[in-house]
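Running co-folding for heme C.
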Amino acid sequence: MNKLILTAAAIASFHVFAQPAFAQDAQAGEKKAAMCIGCHGIPGYQASFPEVHKVPMISGQNAKYIVASLEAYKKGDRKHPTMDAIAQSLSEQDMADLAAFYEGHGKAPQNAGKPAQPSPEVAELLKKANCASCHGEDYNKPIDPSYPKIAGQHADYLYVALKAYHTSNNRLIGRNNAIMAGMAKLYTLSELKKISKYLASLDGDLRTVPESRFR
Ligand code: HEC
Ligand code: HEC
């Protein structure tokens, strides 16, 4: 059953990429994920350096975004000492396989629940930069597969991520993405915290899937 889902996911994501540079293999990715589960496979696992926050959920994330973020760590466009080192050790093939695995990993039945309504203040904040115009309906269906799903992600991670676009000239922290830097700089840090809290309260595809669930 697991194999079936993985194969289906691999085929489905193969079609998304019109001209994949590397054929992706979700089953190969599952084996390679052995070096990821110590952090991404433990619900609520806290990173403590350079900042304290929960490790982001990556199961159910868009494959193309996973590859883009791993490449950003490898190139230094996105700084994080641990993830930079891990990305350095990955080939393009490894990234493609891991992304295919994680995209199809732990897909839950679509939540039928109504999305939580933002407070009037948060609704205004989200409107200011039209966040949903890229991150998509309910912040779970980005308009481009290289953009992240953010609904239901950990609030403290979302905040650290948004704050990182404000940071420059720091050896350990910072994200260079020109699109998001422009967005994040429209807000104060306390506004970003409120936005993060709301986005984390939404239902979405993102999960942390403990290892024992798929062995
Ligand atoms: C020692 C703990 C640790 C290990 C092991 C680890 N990660 Fe991470 N990962 C993190 C942390 C912490 C972050 C958030 C970093 C940041 O703020 O940019 C992260 C971020 C990511 C992101 C970006 C998520 C997003 O929403 O932008 C991806 C993708 C990712 N990791 C994939 C992997 C893969 C694939 C592996 C295995 C090859 C792996 N990680 C191994 C701790 C870890
Ligand atoms: C024009 C398109 C666009 C708009 C509008 C936009 N984003 Fe983004 N967002 C992106 C892209 C592209 C990325 C990936 C950037 C990167 O790799 O650093 C991203 C990344 C993020 C991340 C990091 C997610 C992660 O897993 O690390 C968060 C959080 C986020 N956006 C929140 C927001 C919020 C909140 C708004 C509104 C204030 C917003 N975005 C508006 C395109 C957009």
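Result summary
The pocket of heme C (ligand 2) is lined by residues 56, 68-69, 72, 129-131, 133-135, 147-148, 150, 153, 158, 161-162, 175, 177, 179-180, 183, 195 (CB under 6 Å).
The radius of gyration is 17 Å.
Job closed.
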